[in-house]
Amino acid sequence: PRTVAIVGRPNVGKSRLFNRLARKRISIVHDMPGVTRDVITAEVEDGGYTLLDTGGLGLTGSDTPARITKASEAQVGFAIEAASVILFVIDAREGVTGLDERIAQLLRKSRKHVLLVANKADRGQEKLADISEFYRLGFGEPFYISAEHGNGEAEVRNAVLEKLGPVQEETDEERARLHICFLGRPNVGKSSLSNRLLKSDRLIVSDVPGTTRDAVELDFSYTNKDGKPWLFRLVDTAGIRAAPKLSSSVEYFSRLRSLEAIHGSDVVFMVLDAMDGVTQQDKAIAGEIVKAQKPIVIVVNKWDLVHEAFRTHSPGMEKYKNARDFREKFEKAMFDQLFFTPGAPVMFVSALTGHEIDRMLRAARALDRRLDTKIPTARLNATLIKLADRTPPPAIGGQRFKIYYATQTSRRPFRIKVFCNQERTLTESYRRYLEAGLVKEFELDGCPIHFDLVGKK
Ligand code: GDP
């Protein structure tokens, strides 16, 4: 992502410069558990980049010079991680201090684009430090500016844009084929569903569990009600079968080539058998899909058998009032036993009758569309702050998880890089809480979000 960071020792005017470049005033609030505004962010629209002021990071208010040095080093380290262009602000009047030199040293090692900005060069101010001092820092001639009055601002703006390079235009939606696959244990109806979709006999349905066939890829289109064809590629995993001797489901699963199918898919259909409920093996498979960070459409197949069972008053069906009640209980039991990304769609279908097969494709398509969402960094951080305000993270061994700054780094899958105090203080349940909160806020139902934590181990 296009990110620009402002660094420099305290009082050189970083936040003034920040407000100028961001073209707005960002107010700073007090420390709070979970997220602080140690790092302040703004989206700079006329350049398409995220601007960061790291100036608050690591400072507490009552800081000794030694602490300030430490905090400044942390700020620079952070900026180097997070940004591609760094604005290194110094004081044009005071000249270069020891701390400036220390910061310069770290920045020189970073190989990032560094622009040296000598602030407080107000018009009519003649008492500027000697330029040779600035040269010695190793970043060439400084940009003389007055963040207070705006002199030199345009030059800095332009230099930043030049270093960032042009905004990459998104390759326009020559919408790629949606790659899908059916995953599930043997005999849940994967091949039957494939056949149903393809309305052809190109895939052989077998009654014999454990039959092996090779994975095949099949392209097909589905014409939506509005007449527009949607293109799909089905990676058939029917060929993926257990090596029969392996006992534990984890081992069993790990051997399967279905991992390849998962990774090659945009959306995975996790197939369950309506009559069987959730089995151990289903759990292992669900876990793999979640681990691969793929969006899931949960497909509960053989729905016709449920109706049939009601009709014939099969034993066991008296627990349910009707098909709807069955569905609700099935869903509840499933979500209790399997962890999926919040909002994962659940479809009750029948490969035999074709019930809800179209909806299954529509659900996949809708999920896929969400994967294109770009989360603006400022809103992402504001949301995390809000979530941490609402439910502060638990203290782990006297430490609380704290996010300094977060930014989306990819979309398929969603990856969010989170700069935090200590990686280990993020509990799994809090991670899920944050994920669920982001899914809700940015309408990413069913799309897993992966957090890449950057902090002390
Ligand atoms: P796979 O191993 O997951 O590919 O499962 P198959 O597609 O080979 O199906 C296993 C068995 O379940 C076959 O006998 C199918 O005819 C049957 N089957 C699949 N889908 C349905 C369904 O929706 N309703 C009913 N009644 N049977 C189904």
Notes on the protein architecture:
The chain has 457 residues and is an alpha/beta fold. Helix content is 34%, strand content 22%. The strands form 4 sheets. The chain has a 6-stranded mixed sheet with strand order 3-4-1-5-6-7, with helices on both faces. The protein has a 6-stranded mixed sheet with strand order 9-10-8-11-12-13, with helices on both faces. Helix 2 packs parallel to helix 3 (98-110) and helix 13 packs across helix 14. The longest helix is centred in the N-terminal third of the chain and has 18 residues, at 65-82. The chain is elongated, with a radius of gyration of 28 Å. The two termini are 24 Å apart.
Number of domains: 3
First CA to last CA: what distance?
Answer: 24 Å
Portion of residues in helices?
Answer: 25-40%
Mean pLDDT: 82
Largest sheet: 6 strands, mixed
CATH class term of the largest domain:
Alpha Beta
Count of separate DSSP helical elements = 14
What's the name of the CATH homologous superfamily of the largest domain?
A: P-loop containing nucleotide triphosphate hydrolases
CATH architecture title of the largest domain:
3-Layer(aba) Sandwich
Radius of gyration: 28 Å
Q: Could you list the spans in which at least 5 consecutive residues all have pLDDT below 50?
A: 27-36, 170-174, 206-215, 238-256
Bound molecules: guanosine-5'-diphosphate
Measured by DSSP, the beta-strand proportion falls in 15-25%
- What is the CATH topology descriptor of the largest domain? Rossmann fold
Give the helix/strand class: alpha/beta
Shape: elongated
The strands making up the biggest β-sheet line up spatially as 3-4-1-5-6-7
How many runs of DSSP E, i.e. beta strands? 18
